[in-house]
């Protein structure tokens, strides 16, 4: 395929020529006279609004039945021809309302182009004409919240689905107890909605239960290893909208760090604070805050305002805007890659050329292949994407009953109609029915009129439902408060245990030091008793005997005095030795009693802690 042919496919030239050819062939084959049609044939080619896949636009697709049908002439077609006809798609052109719906099959199959491919391309190609089509798939994608996947990198890698199943079961078992402690009011089974093994051998998990989703958004709650497999979790970056609020009109001089510092003192479960793109002006912007704890989220939302640096700021609930379904092959909105009939190859959203190698298109020139603007083809700045988004929001506003009953969508300001203050899209069918019943009850005339039993029953049931909802809400708040109290008690016990362990270690160290000192004192006393006093006594006795032996040979009075002094010194040393020994014995008795008392204190601390 040449570059010119590729450019023609991207610009839609081939499809325009094909559409013109279809119109020309259809006009030549059709007749102006009305033809009679069998009942079963009319059902086959009738347009059913509920079964019609395309909501907007002048081309409509009708699903033909697979069963065998008789033609207008009564001839039965063969089975093979029937299958070919059932695979074709009938084109209804609003300009030609008198098209013969029983076209000759041989003429259709001999055309130079594939009608099926042409019709699907016309249904999804938003760049070919001014009429943008909104499919049911696009409406469903826009109205539902798409939960991002949890990625768990495994080492070694997973190769067998059975191994992955065992790992999933062990993961649920390891987190179940702690999850139920932190979510005591949770009554559903703890299960994952979907899991698979990606080509790299890692786990991918989809969780649609809000409580379990929020619980596993913290990395510290995952086990480090299961079944000899090391786990490295990568949870989603954002929490669901049910845990997200918006601070409006925050001044640009207040940074994200300032907001974190100000709010962290009052709120402990803040997960993320970031600016909202598209709301930043020269002076102010909106800030999105996510909370792990549902109680703190409810308190902040019900308060309506938050004080930052002495100034009040408005708090509002975060409601997501409708998302656009964009094909990853042709970059056109309204369908997915597996249903793409616009392009047979992947188109780069940056430069618009064929994307054969991703590395070649990481730094290619940026030019939208839809409108030629200086942006990627999937950017909301693109006129095609912007117009499609406008039509999508308009379709959702015209048919809010297509939304799930518990879903609300936000309408951006640039897509609102002037003088229309509606900011949300929701399925309000049940609310409108309730309002009509209440209005009819309030507007009735007072007088001798019989009470409408049906309205009275409905009103009573509404009151009962409101009371039941209020009681359920109060019960949930009570359970959450009980859960918070239990968590606080556990924290206090853990702090007390840590303090007790520290004190016990300190006492043990003091006891060991006292024992070491006692042993040192005993060693010194023993050395003194063995060496000092006996040695002194022996030396004095020797000196006394020497002097006494010298006494007969000397008639000096000094020798008698020296003998008396030596004898008195010997008596003094003996008396001091006895007193020292007696004092040591008394100290040993007192030390033994102190050790017994110290051991009793330690034993009592252990007993009280165990109780």
SSE sequence, one letter per element: HHHHHHHEHEEHEEEHEEHEEHEEHHH
Give the C-alpha Rg: 45 Å
With helices defined by DSSP (H or I, 4 residues minimum), what is the helix count?
Answer: 15
Cα end-to-end separation: 84 Å
The proportion of residues in beta strands is: 5-15%
Task: List low-confidence stretches.
Answer: 30-131, 444-452
Nearest-integer average pLDDT = 76
Domain CCHC-type: 327-340
Keywords: Coiled coil, Metal-binding, Zinc, Zinc-finger
InterPro entries: Znf_CCHC (IPR001878), Znf_CCHC_sf (IPR036875)
Protein name: CCHC-type domain-containing protein
Describe it for me?
- InterPro entries: Znf_CCHC (IPR001878), Znf_CCHC_sf (IPR036875).
- Residues 327-340 form the CCHC-type domain.
- Keywords: Coiled coil, Metal-binding, Zinc, Zinc-finger.
- With 611 residues, the protein is of the alpha+beta class.
- Among the domains are: 11-30 and 41-124, no CATH class; 150-234, no CATH class; 241-317, 2-Layer Sandwich (Alpha-Beta Plaits), CATH 3.30.70.330; 454-610.
- The chain contains 15 helices and 12 strands.
- The strands form 3 sheets. A 5-stranded antiparallel sheet has the order 2-3-1-5-4. Strands 7-8-6-10-9 form a 5-stranded antiparallel sheet. Strands 11-12 form a two-stranded antiparallel sheet.
- α13 (429-442) packs across α14.
- The two termini are 84 Å apart.
- The model is unreliable at 30-131 and 444-452 (pLDDT under 50).
């Amino acid at each position: 395929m040449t570059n010119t042919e590729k450019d023609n496919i991207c610009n839609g030239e081939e499809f325009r020529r094909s559409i013109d050819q279809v119109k020309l062939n259809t006009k030549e084959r059709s007749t102006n006279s009305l033809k009679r049609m069998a009942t079963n044939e009319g059902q086959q080619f009738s347009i059913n609004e509920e079964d019609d896949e395309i909501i907007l636009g002048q081309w409509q697709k009708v699903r033909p039945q697979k069963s065998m049908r008789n033609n207008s002439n009564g001839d039965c077609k063969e089975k093979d021809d029937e299958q070919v006809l059932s695979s074709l798609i009938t084109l209804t052109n609003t300009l030609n309302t008198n098209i013969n719906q029983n076209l000759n099959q041989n003429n259709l199959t001999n055309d130079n182009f594939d009608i099926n491919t042409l019709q699907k391309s016309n249904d999804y190609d938003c760049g070919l004409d001014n009429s943008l089509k909104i499919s049911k798939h696009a409406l469903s994608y826009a109205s539902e919240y798409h939960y991002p996947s949890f990625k768990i990198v495994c080492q070694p890698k997973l190769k067998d689905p059975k191994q992955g199943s065992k790992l999933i079961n062990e993961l649920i078992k390891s987190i179940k107890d702690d999850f139920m402690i932190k979510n005591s009011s949770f009554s559903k089974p703890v299960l994952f909605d979907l899991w698979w093994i990606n080509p790299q051998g890692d786990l991918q998990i989809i969780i649609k239960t809000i409580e379990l989703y929020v619980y596993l958004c913290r990395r510290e709650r995952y086990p480090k290893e299961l079944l000899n497999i090391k786990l490295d979790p990568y949870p989603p970056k954002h929490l669901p909208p049910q845990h997200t609020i918006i601070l409006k009109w925050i001044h640009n001089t207040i940074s994200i760090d300032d907001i974190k510092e100000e709010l962290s003192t009052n709120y402990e479960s803040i997960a993320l604070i970031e600016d909202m793109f598209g709301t930043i002006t020269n002076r102010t912007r909106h800030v999105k805050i996510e909370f792990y704890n549902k109680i703190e989220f409810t308190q902040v939302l019900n308060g309506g305002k938050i004080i930052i640096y002495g100034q009040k700021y408005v708090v509002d609930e975060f409601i997501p805007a409708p998302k656009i379904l964009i094909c990853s092959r042709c970059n056109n909105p309204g369908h997915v890659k597996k249903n793409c009939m616009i392009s047979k190859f992947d188109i780069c959203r940056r430069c618009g050329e064929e994307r054969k190698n991703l590395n070649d298109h990481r730094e290619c020139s940026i030019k939208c292949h839809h409108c030629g603007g200086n942006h990627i083809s999937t950017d909301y700045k693109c006129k095609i994407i912007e117009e499609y988004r406008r039509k999508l929001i308009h379709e959702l506003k015209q048919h809010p009953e297509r939304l799930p009953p518990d879903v609300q969508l936000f309408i951006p300001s640039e897509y609102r109609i002037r003088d229309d203050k509606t900011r949300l899209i929701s399925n309000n069918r049940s609310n409108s029915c309730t309002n009509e019943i209440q209005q009819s009850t309030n507007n009735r005339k007072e007088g001798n009129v019989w009470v409408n039993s049906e309205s009275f029953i409905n009103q009573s049931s509404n009151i009962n439902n409101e009371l039941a909802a209020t009681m359920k809400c109060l019960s949930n708040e009570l359970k959450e408060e009980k859960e918070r109290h239990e968590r606080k008690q556990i924290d206090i016990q853990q702090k007390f245990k840590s303090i007790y362990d520290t004190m016990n270690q300190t006492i043990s160290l003091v006891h060991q030091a006292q024992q070491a000192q006692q042993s040192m004192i005993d060693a010194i006393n023993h050395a003194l008793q063995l060496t000092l006093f006996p040695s002194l006594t022996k030396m004095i006795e020797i000196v006394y005997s020497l002097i006494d032996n010298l006494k007969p040979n000397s008639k000096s009075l000094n020798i008698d005095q020296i003998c008396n002094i030596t004898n008195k010194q010997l008596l003094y040393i003996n008396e001091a030795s006895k007193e020292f020994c007696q004092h040591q014995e008394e100290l040993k008795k007192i030390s033994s009693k102190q050790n017994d008392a110290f051991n009793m204190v330690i034993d009592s601390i252990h007993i009280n802690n165990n109780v």
